[in-house]
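Hey, I'm writing a tutorial for new members on how sequence and structure tokens pair up, and I'd like a real worked example in the thread rather than a made-up one. If someone can provide the structure for the chain below, I'll link this post from the tutorial.
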Amino acid sequence: MPTRRSLKTRTRRSRVVGVIVTRADLRLALRMSAPPDLFEVRLDHLIKHLAEVEDTIKKLRAPLIITARHPLEGGANRLRAHERRALLLRFLPYAAYVDIELRSLRGFRRVLEAAQSSQIPVIISFHDFQNTPSQNQLRAKERAAFAAGAGIFKVASRTDRAAQLARLRAFLTGERHALPVSAMGIGKLGRASRIALARCGSVLNYAHLGKARIAGQLDLPSLRKSI
């Protein structure tokens, strides 16, 4: 398994992630002559098209993050834990990273173990659609992610107000982190937050390929230009 030091070296620069949510996104990703650094495949959204997903992702020209999001953290189709777990295990052989929510770790031990045995780094993520927690709370979540074996800690939180964005930025740029951190805002200041946090060192920065699915999400050309 890669060491924490090697993972930090690998994720030192800010990278752009194109999010594949629909079949149209999937087909656009396949046609891209200049793909992003990574693609994220949202398996929870693509549950009815898995054969097409499996056929297409083999041909994409960038490494993949796979995730099947929990319904309380933005997941589609109200998938149960065993359904999301099965999706991740099925698509793990194609993945460069697998993203699992902090809240889901207890039920996803098999996925964690399979990723570790295949030397696939795990992104452990946390989403708060109502607020941005305090720095102490975010640091506690990062420590939990580190203890669980994460390679990257990802946080997405509500940034409707300047104070919320300031808290998220202070967390990203504050004391030395146990892990590389990907941070982004959602809401009225989401767009500004994503540009600012990418420039402050967020290691993974997510963009839509056709249509924003969440307030503040940038399109791929805009995000690339901004950072």
